[in-house]
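can u pls check wat happens w/ cobalt (II) ion
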Amino acid sequence: MQNNNSPLGNTSLEIFLEEFWQKQYLLIPNALPNFKCPITADEMAGLACEAEIESRIILEHAGEHPWQCRHGPFEESEFSQLPESNWCLLLQSCNLHLNAFAKLLDQFRFIPNWRVDDIMLSYAAPGGSVGPHTDNYDVFLLQAQGTRRWEISSQSLCDSDFLPNLDLKILKSFKAEQSWQLTPGDMLYLPPGIAHHGIAEDDGDDCITISIGFRAPNYNELSTALLNDIDQQQDSKSQFNFYSDPKFPLQDNSGEISSWALERINKIVRQEISDKINENDWFGKYITQVDESAQLLEPQLTHKQCLQQLASGQHLVRNEYSKLAFTQNDKHKENQIQFYCNGKVEYYAKSLLPIISLACNHRYPPFELTNIALEDKQAELFLCHLINLGHFYFEQDL
Ligand code: SIN
Ligand code: CO
């Protein structure tokens, strides 16, 4: 991966991954030079009134209790009742709803797509913030408009350090060790676990911050996903196999589950799990799952119409709701590419790697994607299949 257009300033992608990612903060002044905020505070308030946008308002003092969190959708009239200061509005998953943010996300593809969560927007009135807190995930905080002061602290924390009975995990006390003022185009990267507090400065401009957030499934989620996948494999040979103990040793207590039996059970379970892990596709299916609200328009193009549109040179765009990924695994014999699409897996020959990787890598794929499809029958079928399922559309269909 090249550093061209990287938003990391003077830090190369390699150095970033080696020294900063998941390890330490990085302040990147002027990360996106001449950055123009793609949204206004009024437009954000409008989006917060829509049911399909997940929104929250956080009031430091003006709610029923300190740090009250209200959930949207909101009524327009609610905005006029808000105080002059010390509150903020958060809009989740803006990359799904607004192309400008989907495009912005494409600049962070040096971290694999499956690690990306979403783009959150935050508008903060003067003095407004979500309170001092830590996150379990990595985040790039890009200042889009106005000025925000970010304070950080490396203090180590435990559960009792947070205020009780709140929707938000806010620190009872926070002692800033470092602080910076970020203006449009500046960015701060924070790894998980660093306490931080971002307060809107009163500089006469609206303070809007864009958070590019990453996802990291917790261990419970991972093991549950693996076990669910084993459970769903109706045709799995394992359902016809039953516990057996032909070498059962004589035991003194019939009421005891012996350590011999436990070891045998554990061995069977370990084998089941390791067979599943070696198949290698449960994780791809899990991590590309989308929730039911995902909107895919199925264009119902005939194969001929699809080809005509491809040949006419129109730009293809991947639906932001589509989660695509692939793995390569020789175990699947001639179908060595496992292609994951919104929680499902399909198997393809290695010769399709160029088109599959382009489809998975880019939300705005280069023309090469179309060219490969126009030159190879299997690639053509693959791409038309994705278009007809609504995972890619022609830009004019926007
Ligand atoms: C914000 O932008 O208001 C909060 C983002 C964060 O602290 O992660
Ligand atoms: Co945070």
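The chain has a mean pLDDT of 92.
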